[in-house]
Amino acid sequence: MKTGKMRVSINAPVVLGIVGISFAATLLGYITGGITSRVIFTTYRSALWSPMTYLRAFTHIFGHADWQHFVGNMSYLLLLGPMLEEKYGSRTLAGVVAVTAFSTSFVNYVLFPNVALCGASGVVFAFILLSSFTSFKQGEIPLTFILVSVIFIGQQIFEGIFVRDNVSNLSHIVGGIVGGFLGYEFNLRQRDGSSVSKN
């Protein structure tokens, strides 16, 4: 009787890449006393002619305020990401992450000039809403999508109005909107016969 050897597989390279870069960014933040976090991994209102403004519009998702912040976001990404990457492909999921990163940065830049933003929670909310479309059928809106929208987005609106903390509820809402919209579009294309590119 043959016994197969167990091996570790890299089943979700985009998700694992985000986790790895986020770990390195958070560690660097601790080592440098927050300098790398401010310069590279946090987005805020800065000069439009500075290349760093545009770089930070994407890299802020890798920076985290502390290890608790990092562990919370990475737990959700590792839970939801592999399923989404298998369904939509690495290239498409990387696109979702990039669109979410830029959208949350842009909204923060325009509406909150004095607020610095870091962390992958916008991406987490995009993944949460995107995952609710995994069993989408044409002409139907999944009840899971409605419930997730009400529970998660409703909570963020409530906390944004009544709770004063350092959590950017608007980035959660923007991430959720991006995930919900793209989830609907991807699944609509698949039902119509056109494919979402997988890589």
Decide which structural class fits the backbone.
Answer: mainly alpha
Global mean pLDDT = 83
Going by CATH, what is the homologous superfamily?
Rhomboid-like
Number of strands: 0
Q: Report the major sheet.
A: none
**How helical, in percent, are the residues?**
55-70%
Give the CATH architecture.
Up-down Bundle
How many helices?
Answer: 8
The CATH topology is given as Rhomboid-like fold
The end-to-end span amounts to: 36 Å
CATH class call: Mainly Alpha
Radius of gyration: 18 Å
Portion in beta strands: under 5%
Return residue spans where pLDDT drops below 50 for at least 5 consecutive residues. Answer: none
Q: What sequence of helices (H) and strands (E) makes up the elements?
A: HHHHHHHH
Structurally, the number of domains stands at 1
